[in-house]
Protein backbone atom coordinates (compact mmCIF):
# COMPACT_ATOMS: atom_id res chain seq x y z
CA UNK A 1 0.00 0.00 0.00
CA UNK A 2 1.25 3.47 -0.86
CA UNK A 3 0.04 6.90 0.16
CA UNK A 4 1.10 8.38 -3.18
CA UNK A 5 -1.79 9.80 -5.24
CA UNK A 6 -4.23 9.13 -2.40
CA UNK A 7 -7.72 10.52 -3.03
CA UNK A 8 -10.81 10.73 -0.87
CA UNK A 9 -11.39 10.99 2.87
CA UNK A 10 -8.44 10.58 5.20
CA UNK A 11 -9.65 10.55 8.79
CA UNK A 12 -7.66 12.58 11.30
CA UNK A 13 -8.12 9.81 13.84
CA UNK A 14 -8.61 10.54 17.52
CA UNK A 15 -6.61 8.59 20.11
CA UNK A 16 -8.93 6.87 22.61
CA UNK A 17 -7.90 6.82 26.26
CA UNK A 18 -8.81 4.80 29.33
CA UNK A 19 -10.00 6.57 32.48
CA UNK A 20 -6.43 6.53 33.80
CA UNK A 21 -5.23 8.36 30.69
CA UNK A 22 -3.48 5.43 29.02
CA UNK A 23 -4.09 4.60 25.38
CA UNK A 24 -7.09 2.32 24.90
CA UNK A 25 -5.80 -0.06 22.25
CA UNK A 26 -8.94 -2.21 22.27
CA UNK A 27 -11.02 0.84 21.38
CA UNK A 28 -8.41 1.93 18.85
CA UNK A 29 -8.82 -1.42 17.09
CA UNK A 30 -12.60 -0.89 16.97
CA UNK A 31 -12.14 2.57 15.46
CA UNK A 32 -9.76 1.26 12.79
CA UNK A 33 -12.26 -1.46 11.88
CA UNK A 34 -15.09 1.10 11.84
CA UNK A 35 -13.24 3.15 9.23
CA UNK A 36 -12.27 0.17 7.13
CA UNK A 37 -15.93 -0.87 7.05
CA UNK A 38 -17.21 2.59 6.16
CA UNK A 39 -15.15 3.66 3.19
CA UNK A 40 -12.43 5.80 4.76
CA UNK A 41 -9.65 6.00 2.20
CA UNK A 42 -6.72 6.54 4.57
CA UNK A 43 -5.92 6.91 8.26
CA UNK A 44 -3.95 9.82 9.68
CA UNK A 45 -2.77 8.90 13.15
CA UNK A 46 -0.93 11.00 15.74
CA UNK A 47 -1.96 14.33 14.29
CA UNK A 48 -3.54 17.29 16.05
CA UNK A 49 -6.79 15.37 16.48
CA UNK A 50 -4.82 12.40 17.80
CA UNK A 51 -3.33 14.49 20.66
CA UNK A 52 0.20 13.35 19.88
CA UNK A 53 1.58 16.62 21.26
CA UNK A 54 0.56 15.38 24.71
CA UNK A 55 1.87 11.84 24.22
CA UNK A 56 5.33 10.39 24.72
CA UNK A 57 7.48 9.17 21.84
CA UNK A 58 7.07 5.63 23.17
CA UNK A 59 3.28 5.96 23.06
CA UNK A 60 3.47 7.39 19.54
CA UNK A 61 5.53 4.42 18.40
CA UNK A 62 3.14 1.98 20.07
CA UNK A 63 0.09 3.56 18.39
CA UNK A 64 1.81 3.60 15.00
CA UNK A 65 2.87 -0.04 15.24
CA UNK A 66 -0.58 -1.12 16.43
CA UNK A 67 -2.53 0.70 13.71
CA UNK A 68 -0.21 -0.44 10.93
CA UNK A 69 -0.66 -4.05 12.00
CA UNK A 70 -4.43 -3.68 12.39
CA UNK A 71 -4.88 -2.06 8.99
CA UNK A 72 -2.65 -4.70 7.37
CA UNK A 73 -2.19 -2.78 4.15
CA UNK A 74 -5.87 -2.28 3.35
CA UNK A 75 -5.61 1.53 3.27
CA UNK A 76 -2.63 3.86 3.68
CA UNK A 77 -1.59 4.80 7.22
CA UNK A 78 -0.07 8.27 7.50
CA UNK A 79 1.65 9.16 10.77
CA UNK A 80 1.98 12.69 12.10
CA UNK A 81 5.67 13.02 12.93
CA UNK A 82 5.83 16.81 13.11
CA UNK A 83 7.71 18.83 15.69
CA UNK A 84 9.00 22.37 16.07
CA UNK A 85 12.43 20.74 16.41
CA UNK A 86 13.62 19.50 13.03
CA UNK A 87 15.86 16.85 14.56
CA UNK A 88 12.98 15.48 16.63
CA UNK A 89 10.75 15.41 13.55
CA UNK A 90 13.47 13.54 11.68
CA UNK A 91 13.88 10.95 14.43
CA UNK A 92 10.13 10.39 14.72
CA UNK A 93 9.79 10.14 10.94
CA UNK A 94 12.50 7.50 10.69
CA UNK A 95 10.90 5.56 13.55
CA UNK A 96 7.43 5.62 11.96
CA UNK A 97 8.88 4.56 8.61
CA UNK A 98 10.57 1.61 10.30
CA UNK A 99 7.27 0.69 11.99
CA UNK A 100 5.55 0.47 8.62
CA UNK A 101 3.77 3.80 8.13
CA UNK A 102 2.91 4.47 4.49
CA UNK A 103 3.38 8.23 4.71
CA UNK A 104 4.16 11.12 7.04
CA UNK A 105 2.46 14.41 7.93
CA UNK A 106 4.99 17.16 8.68
CA UNK A 107 3.92 20.33 10.48
CA UNK A 108 5.55 23.76 10.43
CA UNK A 109 7.92 24.64 13.32
CA UNK A 110 5.47 26.18 15.79
CA UNK A 111 6.70 28.57 18.51
CA UNK A 112 10.20 29.10 17.13
CA UNK A 113 8.65 29.70 13.66
CA UNK A 114 11.89 30.28 11.63
CA UNK A 115 12.62 32.21 8.42
CA UNK A 116 12.06 31.20 4.78
CA UNK A 117 15.17 29.10 4.33
CA UNK A 118 14.70 27.48 7.72
CA UNK A 119 11.14 26.57 6.81
CA UNK A 120 12.28 25.01 3.54
CA UNK A 121 15.04 23.00 5.20
CA UNK A 122 12.76 21.90 8.05
CA UNK A 123 10.74 19.86 5.57
CA UNK A 124 13.54 19.01 3.16
CA UNK A 125 15.63 17.44 5.94
CA UNK A 126 12.97 14.79 6.56
CA UNK A 127 12.00 14.32 2.93
CA UNK A 128 15.64 13.68 2.04
CA UNK A 129 16.06 11.08 4.78
CA UNK A 130 12.96 8.88 4.52
CA UNK A 131 11.68 6.64 1.74
CA UNK A 132 7.93 7.15 2.23
CA UNK A 133 5.88 10.10 0.94
CA UNK A 134 5.55 13.24 3.04
CA UNK A 135 2.63 15.67 3.31
CA UNK A 136 3.28 19.26 4.36
CA UNK A 137 0.90 20.64 6.98
CA UNK A 138 -0.04 24.32 6.87
CA UNK A 139 -2.16 25.41 9.84
CA UNK A 140 -1.05 28.91 10.90
CA UNK A 141 -3.98 29.35 13.28
CA UNK A 142 -2.39 26.73 15.53
CA UNK A 143 1.31 27.14 14.84
CA UNK A 144 1.69 30.90 14.54
CA UNK A 145 3.44 30.51 11.18
CA UNK A 146 2.60 29.41 7.68
CA UNK A 147 4.36 28.00 4.65
CA UNK A 148 4.86 30.75 2.07
CA UNK A 149 3.77 30.24 -1.49
CA UNK A 150 7.40 30.25 -2.62
CA UNK A 151 8.43 27.57 -0.13
CA UNK A 152 5.48 25.43 -1.27
CA UNK A 153 6.63 25.94 -4.86
CA UNK A 154 10.15 24.78 -4.04
CA UNK A 155 9.04 21.81 -1.97
CA UNK A 156 6.41 20.71 -4.50
CA UNK A 157 9.19 19.50 -6.81
CA UNK A 158 10.82 17.29 -4.18
CA UNK A 159 10.35 13.67 -5.26
CA UNK A 160 9.43 12.57 -1.74
CA UNK A 161 6.89 15.31 -0.94
CA UNK A 162 3.48 14.15 -2.15
CA UNK A 163 1.29 17.08 -1.17
CA UNK A 164 0.05 19.59 1.37
CA UNK A 165 -2.70 19.61 3.98
CA UNK A 166 -3.98 23.16 3.71
CA UNK A 167 -5.80 24.37 6.83
CA UNK A 168 -5.27 28.12 6.78
CA UNK A 169 -8.90 28.84 5.84
CA UNK A 170 -7.57 31.36 3.30
CA UNK A 171 -8.89 30.51 -0.16
CA UNK A 172 -6.75 33.18 -1.79
CA UNK A 173 -3.61 31.48 -0.47
CA UNK A 174 -5.02 28.08 -1.41
CA UNK A 175 -5.59 29.22 -4.99
CA UNK A 176 -2.00 30.42 -5.22
CA UNK A 177 -0.48 27.14 -4.07
CA UNK A 178 -2.98 25.15 -6.15
CA UNK A 179 -0.92 26.21 -9.16
CA UNK A 180 1.70 23.67 -8.08
CA UNK A 181 -0.71 20.73 -7.94
CA UNK A 182 0.16 17.94 -10.35
CA UNK A 183 0.21 14.14 -10.43
CA UNK A 184 3.09 14.14 -7.93
CA UNK A 185 1.90 16.93 -5.59
CA UNK A 186 -1.62 16.82 -4.16
CA UNK A 187 -3.73 19.32 -2.27
CA UNK A 188 -5.87 18.18 0.70
CA UNK A 189 -8.39 20.24 2.59
CA UNK A 190 -7.62 20.55 6.27
CA UNK A 191 -10.98 22.18 6.99
CA UNK A 192 -14.21 20.18 6.91
CA UNK A 193 -16.27 23.26 6.03
CA UNK A 194 -14.14 23.99 2.94
CA UNK A 195 -13.82 20.59 1.29
CA UNK A 196 -15.65 21.46 -1.92
CA UNK A 197 -13.96 24.83 -2.47
CA UNK A 198 -10.57 23.13 -2.21
CA UNK A 199 -11.64 20.25 -4.45
CA UNK A 200 -12.72 22.87 -7.00
CA UNK A 201 -9.13 24.18 -7.02
CA UNK A 202 -7.77 20.75 -7.88
CA UNK A 203 -7.77 19.14 -4.46
CA UNK A 204 -7.65 15.37 -4.02
CA UNK A 205 -9.60 15.06 -0.79
CA UNK A 206 -9.79 15.99 2.86
CA UNK A 207 -7.91 15.13 6.03
CA UNK A 208 -11.02 15.17 8.15
CA UNK A 209 -12.16 15.53 11.74
CA UNK A 210 -15.78 14.99 10.65
CA UNK A 211 -14.88 11.54 9.33
CA UNK A 212 -14.41 10.36 12.93
CA UNK A 213 -18.20 10.36 13.29
CA UNK A 214 -19.41 10.25 9.66
CA UNK A 215 -16.83 8.31 7.67
CA UNK A 216 -19.13 7.06 4.92
CA UNK A 217 -20.70 10.45 4.30
CA UNK A 218 -17.31 12.18 4.19
CA UNK A 219 -15.93 9.62 1.75
CA UNK A 220 -19.04 9.83 -0.44
CA UNK A 221 -18.99 13.64 -0.48
CA UNK A 222 -15.44 13.72 -1.84
CA UNK A 223 -15.95 10.90 -4.31
CA UNK A 224 -19.24 12.31 -5.58
CA UNK A 225 -17.46 15.56 -6.37
CA UNK A 226 -14.45 13.89 -7.97
CA UNK A 227 -16.73 11.62 -10.03
CA UNK A 228 -18.79 14.52 -11.35
CA UNK A 229 -21.88 14.54 -9.12
CA UNK A 230 -21.15 17.97 -7.75
CA UNK A 231 -24.72 18.77 -6.78
CA UNK A 232 -24.93 15.74 -4.50
CA UNK A 233 -21.55 16.62 -2.99
CA UNK A 234 -22.73 20.18 -2.40
CA UNK A 235 -25.88 18.97 -0.69
CA UNK A 236 -23.75 16.87 1.67
CA UNK A 237 -21.29 19.70 2.39
CA UNK A 238 -24.04 22.20 3.20
CA UNK A 239 -26.26 19.66 4.91
CA UNK A 240 -23.52 18.76 7.38
CA UNK A 241 -22.42 22.34 8.05
CA UNK A 242 -24.12 22.61 11.46
CA UNK A 243 -22.47 19.39 12.62
CA UNK A 244 -19.10 20.53 11.24
CA UNK A 245 -19.41 23.87 13.02
CA UNK A 246 -20.33 22.03 16.20
CA UNK A 247 -17.11 20.04 16.01
CA UNK A 248 -15.12 23.27 16.21
CA UNK A 249 -17.00 25.16 18.93
CA UNK A 250 -13.95 24.56 21.11
CA UNK A 251 -10.42 23.57 20.25
CA UNK A 252 -10.12 20.28 18.35
CA UNK A 253 -10.35 17.43 19.40
CA UNK A 254 -12.45 18.35 22.43
CA UNK A 255 -15.79 18.56 20.56
CA UNK A 256 -15.28 15.54 18.32
CA UNK A 257 -14.46 13.34 21.31
CA UNK A 258 -17.53 14.72 23.08
CA UNK A 259 -19.61 13.91 20.00
CA UNK A 260 -18.22 10.39 19.78
CA UNK A 261 -18.94 9.76 23.45
CA UNK A 262 -22.50 11.09 23.05
CA UNK A 263 -22.90 8.71 20.11
CA UNK A 264 -21.92 5.77 22.31
CA UNK A 265 -18.44 5.26 20.91
CA UNK A 266 -16.82 5.54 24.38
CA UNK A 267 -13.47 6.99 23.34
CA UNK A 268 -12.63 8.44 26.73
CA UNK A 269 -11.28 11.82 27.71
CA UNK A 270 -8.31 14.02 26.89
CA UNK A 271 -4.70 14.61 27.73
CA UNK A 272 -4.02 17.83 29.60
CA UNK A 273 -4.04 20.71 28.90
CA UNK A 274 -7.22 19.72 27.06
CA UNK A 275 -10.28 19.22 29.21
CA UNK A 276 -14.02 18.55 29.02
CA UNK A 277 -16.21 20.72 26.84
CA UNK A 278 -17.94 23.71 28.41
CA UNK A 279 -21.65 23.29 29.08
CA UNK A 280 -22.86 26.03 26.70
CA UNK A 281 -20.80 24.72 23.79
CA UNK A 282 -21.77 21.14 24.64
CA UNK A 283 -25.46 22.06 24.44
CA UNK A 284 -24.96 23.56 20.96
CA UNK A 285 -23.06 20.48 19.82
CA UNK A 286 -25.73 18.15 21.19
CA UNK A 287 -28.43 20.11 19.39
CA UNK A 288 -26.55 19.83 16.08
CA UNK A 289 -26.05 16.08 16.59
CA UNK A 290 -29.73 15.60 17.41
CA UNK A 291 -30.82 17.58 14.37
CA UNK A 292 -28.65 15.32 12.22
CA UNK A 293 -30.09 12.19 13.84
CA UNK A 294 -26.75 11.16 15.34
CA UNK A 295 -27.88 11.02 18.97
UniProtKB/TrEMBL annotation:
The record marks 48, 111 as: Part of a proton relay during catalysis. It comes from the Bacteria. PROSITE patterns: DHDPS_1 (PS00665), DHDPS_2 (PS00666). It is found in: Cytoplasm. Pyruvate binds at residues 49, 207. It is an enzyme of class 4 (lyase). Keywords: Amino-acid biosynthesis, Cytoplasm, Diaminopimelate biosynthesis, Lyase, Lysine biosynthesis, Schiff base. The keyword Zinc does not apply. SUPFAM superfamilies: Aldolase (SSF51569). Gene3D superfamilies: Aldolase class I. Pfam families: DHDPS. Transmembrane segments: none annotated. Its EC number is 4.3.3.7. InterPro entries: Aldolase_TIM, DapA, DapA-like, Schiff_base-form_aldolases_AS, Schiff_base-form_aldolases_CS. Homotetramer; dimer of dimers. NCBIfam families: dapA. Catalyzes the condensation of (S)-aspartate-beta-semialdehyde [(S)-ASA] and pyruvate to 4-hydroxy-tetrahydrodipicolinate (HTPA). Belongs to the DapA family. This is 4-hydroxy-tetrahydrodipicolinate synthase. It comes from Allofournierella massiliensis. The gene is dapA.
Amino acid sequence: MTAKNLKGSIVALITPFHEDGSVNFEKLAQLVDFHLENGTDGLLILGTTGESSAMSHEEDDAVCEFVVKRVAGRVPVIAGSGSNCTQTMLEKSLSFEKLGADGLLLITPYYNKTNEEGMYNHFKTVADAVHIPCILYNVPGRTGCGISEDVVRRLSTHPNIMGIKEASGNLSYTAKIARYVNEDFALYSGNDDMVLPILSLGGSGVISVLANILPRQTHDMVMNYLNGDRQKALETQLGLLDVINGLFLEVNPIPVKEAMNQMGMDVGGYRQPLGPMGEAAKAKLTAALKAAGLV
